[in-house]
Design goal:
The structure is a single chain. By secondary structure, this protein is mostly beta strands. Helices cover 9% and strands 38% of the residues. It is built from four helices and 26 strands. A seven-stranded antiparallel sheet has the order 2-1-13-4-9-10-11, with helices on one face. A four-stranded antiparallel sheet has the order 5-6-7-8, with no helix packed on it. A hairpin with a 2-residue loop joins strand 25 and strand 26. The longest helix has 12 residues. It starts with a strand and ends with a helix.
Length: 366
């Protein structure tokens, strides 16, 4: 199971065998020469910025008539909604998700997953940088024609997409939604016995917290995603932010910054700053990557600051997902014992918006 299609405005890619770190893992590899091969289960992932003027947006749409009529339409509508229509001959599957992201600065990550043999699917809308998600279950979603996925990915004329779409991608698996890991496996994390790469951390290990305390690791989650849009890796450079070495993180990994300037500007002891807000070409920049990126993160009993190469970063925040059975089942923690998962009631510190992070960075550079 793998990502087989990734299309951003500059570099569309398709491979029946899988892309990036998923190369060779796709079960569709044997179907490359079959013009009628069906993708019976999978996920369509789209990331798009909401229109600042509140207009409706066609996020992705296509229609084909040979050898039978079929198509897909995914649209964002004013007032906070996403509408999906998938057709295959006389079969039509549709779903609507309401969400509270109505600001033109908001970016949505939308996942349409289908399992035609199981006659089930789901449509999920997540606001990038915000906890929680909106989800609706779908009945009898039709399979997609594999050749359609290839054509729509590689040929811009075969599809309609809004200019505010960052990318879309197709996976042959039902992709998880919800809490997203944000650290490269090589990032060194502090333990009572020194630093160890995240890739070597296991459940039950002890993490040294930024405040000097210790907590056990309840789980280590990992996920491979398209390295596009707001999933594209960010390199944070030493010695900025107190780093002892460069580290690679997801754009939504939040650093915990404090000091007199933070207290003066924001009247807070510390603030959370997403890595993407720190990208300035010097202290942080988007780094070259293949088609996919794999991120991991540690889950602790409480939402804490851990030390990554000398700087404080937040551990995985899962909110109260364990109280929502369907959302938990759709997440990376689907196999975890619900009774043993923690409740993270809220973020420990406020999250800076882009212009606030720029103000703080400019003041520190002065």
């Amino acid at each position: 199971m793998a990502w087989i299609a990734i299309a951003d405005p500059a570099d569309p890619r398709f491979s029946c065998t899988g892309l990036g770190s998923d190369a060779g893992r796709a079960e569709t590899a044997s179907q490359r020469d079959d013009p009628h091969a069906l993708l019976t289960r999978g996920t369509l992932l789209i990331e798009a910025k909401l229109a600042p003027d509140g207009r409706p947006q066609t996020l992705l749409e296509w229609e084909q008539t040979h050898p039978w009529r079929r198509g897909l339409s995914l649209r964002a509508i004013p007032g906070g909604g996403v509408v999906l229509v998938v057709s295959q001959g006389d079969s039509v599957c549709h779903g609507v998700v309401r969400h509270d992201a109505v600001n033109g600065d908001d970016t949505l990550r939308i996942s349409y997953s289908w399992d035609a043999p199981a006659r089930s699917g789901r449509l999920v809308v997540e606001k990038v940088g915000a906890p929680g998600l909106s989800m609706t279950e779908l009945r009898d979603p039709p399979p997609l024609l594999l050749r359609d996925v290839q054509t729509v990915t590689l040929q811009k004329g075969a599809r309609l997409t809004d200019p505010d779409v960052n990318f879309f991608a197709v996976s042959t698996r039902i992709e998880p939604v919800g809490p997203l890991p944000t650290l490269d496996a090589r990032v060194p994390l502090c333990t009572p016995y020194g630093y160890r790469p995240l890739g070597q951390i296991r459940r039950g290990d002890i993490m040294r917290l930024a405040d000097g305390g210790n907590q056990p690791v309840l789980n280590v989650v990992r996920r491979t995603v398209p390295a596009c849009g707001l999933l594209r890796p960010v390199r944070l450079r030493a010695p900025y932010f107190g780093l002892q070495q460069d580290i690679i993180v997801a754009p939504e990994q939040r650093l915990i910054l404090g000091g007199s300037d933070v207290e003066y500007l924001f009247d807070q002891e510390c603030v959370l700053v997403p890595a993407r807000h720190l990208v300035n070409g010097i202290a942080a920049h988007f780094c070259a990557s293949g088609p996919t990126a794999t991120y991991g993160q540690v889950l602790l009993p409480s939402h804490e600051a851990v030390l990554a190469a000398g700087t404080a970063v937040e551990s995985l925040f899962i909110g109260r997902i364990r109280r929502h059975k369907a959302k938990l089942a759709a997440s990376l923690l689907c196999d975890a014992d619900r009774s043993r998962l923690p409740d993270h009631a809220g973020l420990a510190y406020p999250v800076l918006r882009a212009f606030e992070a720029i103000t703080l960075a400019a003041r520190r550079a002065a």
